[in-house]
Amino acid sequence: FPSHDMVQDVFQALADEGRREILFLLASGNKNTAQICRQFPYSRQAVNKHLALLVASGLIHANSEGRSVVYTIELPALKDVKKWIKALTEKAEASSKKIQPKRIRK
């Protein structure tokens, strides 16, 4: 089960729209920095900061290939987040079933 710190890092990374857009871009295949930068109106420096945070969160992986860096989405990290959300949902659903108000018959 994912740790609290891991979940916090992932949600912090997902909190920014630009980083979510980068993830959706990488979901269609690996991209190098230049390919990612061309897709966004941000400076290269801003994109690099977003990429660094995504790498630190474990959502993407950076691999040096010659003079460029290629980024890949990390499915295990996404699956861990999915497990966490599923566990939270199941707990909330179980709790809501226990505390449903009783109907008064007239």
Give a brief outline of the structure.
By secondary structure, this protein is of the alpha+beta class.
Describe the structure.
- With 106 residues, this protein is α+β, with helices and mostly antiparallel strands.
- Helix content is 61%, strand content 13%.
- The chain contains five helices and three strands; from the N terminus they run ααβααββα.
- The chain has helices at 4-14, 17-27, 33-37, 44-57, 75-98, and strands at residues 31-32, 60-65, 68-73.
- The chain has a three-stranded antiparallel sheet.
- Strand 2 and strand 3 form a beta hairpin.
- It is elongated, with a radius of gyration of 19 Å.
Main traits of this protein?
single chain, alpha+beta, 3-stranded antiparallel sheet
| Alpha carbon gyration radius | 19 Å
- Specify the helix fraction band: 55-70%
Note the run of SSEs as H and E: HHEHHEEH
* Low-confidence parts: none
Count of DSSP helices?
5
How are the strands of the biggest sheet laid out side by side?
1-3-2
State the major sheet: 3 strands, antiparallel
Structural class: alpha+beta
Task: Please describe the topology of this protein.
Elements: H1 4-14, H2 17-27, E1 31-32, H3 33-37, H4 44-57, E2 60-65, E3 68-73, H5 75-98
Antiparallel strand pairs: 1-3, 2-3
